[in-house]
Amino acid sequence: MRIDVVSIFPDYLAALDLSLVGKARRSGLLDLRVHDLRDWTADRHRTVDDTPFGGGAGMVMRPDVWGAAIDSVLGDDPEGHLVIPTPSGEVFTQRHAEAFATETHLVVACGRYEGIDARVAERYRAAGRRVSELSIGDYVLNGGEVAALVMVEAVGRLLPGVVGNPESLVEESHGAAGLLEYPVYTKPPAWEGLEIPEVLLSGHHAKIDRWRRDRALERTAARRPDMVAALDVAGLDKHDLRLLAELGWHVDGGRLRRTSDAPEGTGSPAPVAE
Ligand code: JB8
């Protein structure tokens, strides 16, 4: 797979030489190219921004400079998919990462200031390109570079051959099960007066699997009630449903719903209003 990242701070992407993604690049599984947007400026000052039409604070990135950069890195590849990190985008999830990992060519356009002139996304969509405007979460960064790092790492680790043991991709949080991961432990078995759960030493694999699933359900109910509400009831067994009932969730119209007066989040009762 090829990924081009275009930025006015290409050094921000230096971390992609490291670790798993760096190894994928060196092995040839990932052809990752980082570019300086200013290489496509036409003036002596290498200007990439200007004042916003309609007024307002800050500066907006010029569409002509971005158009030249994007045309150049897309070349004649009809499959190139334009990805624009922006706090106004839809939220980037593991589902996006999985879909992107099946593609041949992504071009990630990292904006700064108040963002990129809206005609850039419009122009490539009008030309029949795939264009995805994506946010990595509900907070605001100073530019798209950190979001690009997140997306490249999330996609890169899913490319065939990149993660040594593909089984480690199966059970993880935000996978198909729709649950957070269970807690994990290693040596020493006693540390600072804390012991590991005894069942993990039992060698009883069915019991360990059940214990892990219970902990995953508890964590998900406490931390991510939105994920519990989105669970496919058909994928739950009677033990799951009994535990979820204890945690304040019941099946209603084929979906999980919070039982009224159920314990909130951490499992402690909701505070009573004064
Ligand atoms: C200017 O918060 B973000 C983000 C913020 C940005 C730009 C891109 C992404 C461009 N500010 O994900």
From TrEMBL:
Localization per record: Cytoplasm
Gene: trmD
Residues at which S-adenosyl-L-methionine binds: G111, I136, G137, D138, Y139, V140, L141
NCBIfam families: PRK00026.1, trmD
Family in the record: Belongs to the RNA methyltransferase TrmD family.
CDD domains: TrmD-like (cd18080)
Entry keyword set: Cytoplasm, Methyltransferase, S-adenosyl-L-methionine, Transferase, tRNA processing
PANTHER family referenced in this protein's UniProt entry, alphabetically: TRNA (GUANINE-N(1)-)-METHYLTRANSFERASE
Keyword S-adenosyl-L-methionine: yes
Enzyme type, top EC level: transferase
Name this protein carries in UniProt: tRNA (guanine-N(1)-)-methyltransferase
